């Protein structure tokens, strides 16, 4: 092994743990023909008359496919892995639509982690099997197996440094993860 390859490998292994709190995402528009058939079938079965915008998303953990659309007054983002298997469904909400007790718990935790923060975007996140997610979307009645979480994008200040963060929390308000966003595509993020 050349010394250059050994150095590069050592550098990656030593810096990878430092990236655990950061999240890199790059979204780009893709044509419907590039979407895995399994993903397209699910979206076409569930959202009959909506205009679908397809995106590829690269992150530190891999590549996903995302369908974004608006129907029935709701904005949906449906994420699939690269083979077309559904990962989750996100529905845009306002922060005030999160139950009051959940907001109270979450706000208290965020106030301990940041000097100041503003919620830029809030999404309700459903995770379950494809069949249960289809039922949840079509009937707006959640099967018991659907895991409910909230995903927030914050503009926050910590130690005099302002940045954007993605926060994932349980239905109770307990924080699951906080990731500093390394790169942000504003047009796609706010969609």
Summarize it:
Helix content is 27%, strand content 44%.
Question: How would you explain this protein's 3D organization?
Answer:
The protein is α+β, with helices and mostly antiparallel strands and 191 residues long. It has helices at residues 3-15, 37-46, 100-113, 130-139, 186-189, and strands at residues 22-29, 53-59, 62-71, 74-81, 86-93, 116-127, 147-158, 161-170, 175-183. A nine-stranded mixed beta barrel has the order 1-2-3-4-5-6-7-8-9. A hairpin with a 2-residue loop joins strand 7 (147-158) and strand 8. Mean pLDDT is 85; it is low at 1-20.
Write the layout of secondary structure elements.
Blueprint: H1 3-15, E1 22-29, H2 37-46, E2 53-59, E3 62-71, E4 74-81, E5 86-93, H3 100-113, E6 116-127, H4 130-139, E7 147-158, E8 161-170, E9 175-183, H5 186-189
Parallel strand pairs: 1-9
Antiparallel strand pairs: 1-2, 2-3, 3-4, 4-5, 5-6, 6-7, 7-8, 8-9
């Amino acid at each position: 092994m050349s010394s250059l390859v050994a150095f590069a490998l050592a550098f990656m292994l030593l810096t990878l743990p430092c990236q655990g709190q950061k999240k890199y995402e790059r979204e780009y528009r893709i044509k419907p023909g590039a979407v895995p058939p399994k993903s397209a079938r699910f979206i076409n079965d569930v959202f009959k008359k909506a205009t679908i915008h397809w995106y590829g998303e690269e992150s530190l953990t891999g590549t996903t496919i995302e369908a974004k659309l608006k129907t029935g007054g709701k904005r949906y983002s449906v994420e699939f892995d690269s083979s077309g298997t559904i990962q989750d469904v996100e529905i845009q909400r306002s922060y005030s639509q999160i139950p009051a007790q959940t907001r109270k718990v979450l706000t208290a935790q965020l106030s301990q982690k940041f000097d100041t923060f503003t919620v830029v975007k809030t999404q309700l996140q459903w995770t379950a099997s494809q069949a249960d997610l289809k039922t949840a979307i079509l009937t707006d009645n959640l099967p018991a197996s659907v895991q409910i979480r909230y995903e927030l994008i914050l503009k926050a200040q910590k130690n005099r440094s302002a940045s954007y963060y993605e926060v994932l929390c349980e239905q109770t308000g307990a924080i699951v993860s906080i990731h500093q966003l390394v790169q942000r595509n504003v047009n796609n993020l706010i969609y």
